[in-house]
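Hi there. Long-time user, first ticket. I'm pasting a complex I've been working with (about 326 residues overall). I'd like to know whether the download I got is complete or cut off, because the file seemed smaller than I expected. Thanks.
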Amino acid sequence: MPRRTKTTRWLNAEEEAAWRAIAFVMHRLTWALECQLERDADLSYIEYHTLVRLSEEPNHTLRMSELAIVTNQSLSRLSHLAKRLETRGLLRRETDASDGRFTNAILTDEGYARLVASAPAHVEAVRALVIDAFSTAELRQLRDASERILARIDGQTGTPAAT
Amino acid sequence: MPRRTKTTRWLNAEEEAAWRAIAFVMHRLTWALECQLERDADLSYIEYHTLVRLSEEPNHTLRMSELAIVTNQSLSRLSHLAKRLETRGLLRRETDASDGRFTNAILTDEGYARLVASAPAHVEAVRALVIDAFSTAELRQLRDASERILARIDGQTGTPAAT
DNA sequence: TAGGTTGACTTGAAGGTTCAAGTGATGAGC
DNA sequence: GCTCATCACTTGAACCTTCAAGTCAACCTA
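Hi, the file is complete. Here it is re-exported in full:
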């Protein structure tokens, strides 16, 4: 892929320090929440969020393919994950009655109970580490910043013509 | 772990929206950079950063245990990683001459060349997705926000007495 | 209604990460 | 100087994720 300029615009000291802090916090925060969930709910982050998204659906039910989309994972990964959650009794799967190609993932009562039991601790952690560290205005700014980055990621996906 | 209050302080709509955006961008940004590196350098993020940290040392050399610390990975993980990088010719290991217990990880010339060749594209990506999206002042704020979160993570590590 | 295509998963193998146990070099105590 | 503890890794097994290939239902088309 040819570039317009030959010389790279390296990061200056300010920019580099900012980037290191951002990259580092992403890593550590992800890890901290992962640990908290593992400890308090015996669930990984992806497991927790898969169950959470299910719990937000009417009847605690969603098609595998849609669940994969809303939880940002490949269908294959979800399929393996569902199998494990199924053996743990937190989720079950049923072929859709009206169309045999679809599979519905359904949160079991036990899965829901697990979620109800562990949600407070998770919310507390999110509060303690992030939310409570900022004012309403600051949170708003962080959200804006996040969305600005997201727009850039989405904007450049695969298309080098973007700019 | 008993809590002071029985009722959970759930997130309000603003807080929830902010948190979802932050959590989502962490996930997507990590993934976007991972893809960029895989594509342009045939290296995973952890591989790239392991080599980068080595390249910043005098003689491109660092003890395995110290390299593990600065790259935020377990010694075990680094050991496996080093073995793979070694077979790819990007890194080599030598027992320390003065103390046989230490192992030095050394960036090979080929490894350094790979880094030199791929750094521009990576910096460009970081610029395009993050740095260039913000003013100097905004970057400063983002850095502050990151460090505030980091302080909270470090503060509560394991010690429930913290507050 | 047989044959091919598409969509929606599922499966198996390969590779990476983690955890616990193993190895080998030093240094301390007797 | 022999034994034991410690340090700094390394290794193996179990588990998770990814990728490519496989299965199976429904639809389409002649």
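A couple of notes from our side: Chain A touches chain B through 49 residues (CB under 8 Å). Residues 18-129 of chain A form a domain with the Arc Repressor Mutant, subunit A fold (CATH 1.10.10.10).
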